[in-house]
Amino acid sequence: MFAATTLPLPKTKLRAPSIASSNPASNRSPQSVSLYGSSGCARGLMNERKHSRTLSGASKTKDDPAVATPGEFVRRYGGKRVIEKVLIANNGIGAVKFIRSVRRWSYEMFNNERAITFHAMVTPEDLKANAEYIHLADNFILVPGGTNNHNYANVDLILDLAKRIPVQAVWAGWGHASENPKLPDILHKANIAFLGPPASAMWALGDKIASSIVAQTASVPTLPWSGSETGPVSL
User: Fold this and answer.
1) pTM of the model
2) Where is the composition biased (Low complexity) (predicted)?
3) What pLDDT does 4 receive?
């Protein structure tokens, strides 16, 4: 649980999304409603908007790679988890690129760029800066500002938000909590997908010394360092 703080929404006018769409609904700026109450938790803001686009009239054949929904996609290709809501636990250009890429894929696969919705964590600083990723997201949640241990690097906060929204997956991008093996571990225990490497890979490769030893063990050339003479190790 994070610190008991009530954060007022800064009086910042949100501009229209930067990506034009043939769907008028997709050009509306996100609105916000309270996610957290005022009983000792940070007040979050999120908006639930439903966007839909009518699929083309042409019937889909068995060999057609395109499907109507993420659920149909999972069933057709033998998956086990349907992902329709994703928490964006990052900010800046990384979040922009991720949302745009998935939207493009969703349109090509489902003929619906909003088949997967994005719920973005937003600090007061990001909101004041009128960050582009806020406008691309379907919903946003206002989280505490300041250093990233209060927001994007706070794995307990991320888990709490993922449960409360709720979402089926979390994208942490790079930096912040994406480098903390605790995040994929606690999300896995909560049956929430982490869109990134498993905790075991983070433990093995996240530390620069450990990753250098792993590389040397696999005979991968590395730059000279104080442990260059380290022999093979068992993992």
Assistant:
1) 0.69
2) 15-32
3) 31
